[in-house]
Specification:
With 148 residues, the protein is mainly beta. It has a single domain, classed as Pnp Oxidase, Chain A. Helices cover 7% and strands 45% of the residues. It is built from one helix and nine strands. Strands 2-1-5-6-9 form a five-stranded antiparallel β-sheet, with no helix packed on it. Strands 3-4-8-7 form a four-stranded antiparallel β-sheet, with no helix packed on it. A hairpin with a 6-residue loop joins strand 5 and strand 6. The protein starts with 19 loop residues before the first strand and ends with a strand. The relative contact order is 0.23.
Length: 148
């Protein structure tokens, strides 16, 4: 199970992000530049009698991440604009995957109950390639594929 304890790994088995893909509500976003989704664990500190250590009681997690797109269109704004102007966040589901043909497999994660934290309406800088950064949070996740 895993490469733990192996003396050496094959460099070709290291995942390359170039093979990464992002689907939002089933639509592939070919302009993805980078993608990150992570869990932050929440704990309550517990003091125990006759014990000097600080103990932790797991209380849940928070999912958050960031997508960065090459700016080629207004698809993210178009996806949310009507709903947010009417006082609601639209239903958003994200599937992120990375599958390098030389690696040991693919990793694919589905994120549910996604909410966007912010959305840049317009940004440009002279002699600079445009990009759009979209931070988000999610309440649930499901690993669809994991690397062996």
């Amino acid at each position: 199970m895993g490469l733990f304890g192996k003396e050496k790994i094959n460099a070709n088995q290291v995942i390359s992000g170039t093979s990464g893909k992002v689907f939002i509500n089933g639509n592939k976003f070919a302009n993805i530049k980078s993608f990150e989704a992570k869990l932050t664990f929440e704990y309550e500190e517990i003091d125990l009698a006759e014990d000097m250590g600080k103990h932790q009681k797991y209380m849940g997690y928070q999912g958050e991440g960031t997508m960065v797109f090459h700016k080629v269109d207004s698809s993210v704004l178009r996806m949310v604009k009507d709903d947010i102007k009417n006082g609601k966040m639209p239903e958003i589901m994200i599937v992120g995957s990375v599958e390098d043909p030389a690696a040991l497999g693919a990793e694919r994660i589905q994120l549910m109950e996604v909410t966007l934290d912010e959305l840049m309406l317009l940004k440009f800088e002279l002699k600079t390639v445009g990009e759009e950064e979209v931070p988000f949070k999610f309440a649930d996740f499901e690993p669809l594929d994991l690397i062996a």
